[in-house]
Design goal:
0% strand; rod-shaped; transmembrane; transmembrane helix; membrane
Length: 197
């Protein structure tokens, strides 16, 4: 039978493996999410500000026509070109700045949450797997000792509880008792065998 120290070491190894795996997986997920959001935000801001650029260009043309009546044609053309280019570059810089800020903010804000989630899931899964493994091995060892001490013919339904040794370990997991009635019946059969001997 597996000792408690071995079960504890298995649970510790499982928790360390799960914490490393979850931290790597969730960090990659946050990187992809920040890249996606930065690209989406830059495109969205550019599309949103582009009509404003067109409006300013039209307004600058109107301003140039208005100023041409006052014989300031060069100034109006310069202002129209300057305003359109300035707003265009402003939209690009604003989209890049907001995308970088959002990616940094998401990475900083979600990193503690990823660490806590990975630690919690690793501890929970390691405890659950260690309990399940200890119960399963205890039942198998009990049945093995029972059959070894009593070399009586075994009923065919017993193989649902104790699979043949020729099967692989992971395939024998499918032979575990599912029905509670069969489990109670087998315990009654074992008690009866003990009482007869």
């Amino acid at each position: 039978m597996i000792k408690s120290e071995e079960r504890l070491s298995i649970s510790i190894y499982l928790s360390i493996y799960l914490s490393i795996y979850l931290s790597i997986y969730l960090t990659a997920f946050i990187i992809y999410l920040s890249i996606y959001l930065s690209i989406y935000l830059s495109i969205y801001i550019y599309i949103y500000i582009y009509p404003f650029i067109i409006y300013l260009s039209i307004y600058s043309i109107y301003l140039s026509i208005y100023l041409s009546q006052v014989n300031i044609i060069y100034l109006s053309i310069y202002l129209s070109i300057y305003l359109s280019q300035a707003v265009h570059y402003l939209s690009i810089y604003l989209s890049i700045y907001l995308s970088i800020y959002l990616s940094i903010y998401l990475s900083i804000y979600l990193k503690p949450f990823i660490i806590y989630l990975s630690i919690y899931l690793s501890i929970y899964l390691s405890i659950y797997l260690s309990i399940y493994l200890s119960i399963y091995l205890s039942i198998l060892v009990f049945y093995y000792l029972l059959f070894k001490s009593h070399r009586d013919p075994i009923s065919p339904s017993v193989y649902f509880f104790f699979p043949p040794s020729s099967l692989p370990f992971f395939l024998s997991l499918f032979f575990l008792p599912i029905n509670l009635f069969q489990y109670v019946w087998f315990l009654c059969y074992s008690i009866k065998t003990f009482s007869l001997t």
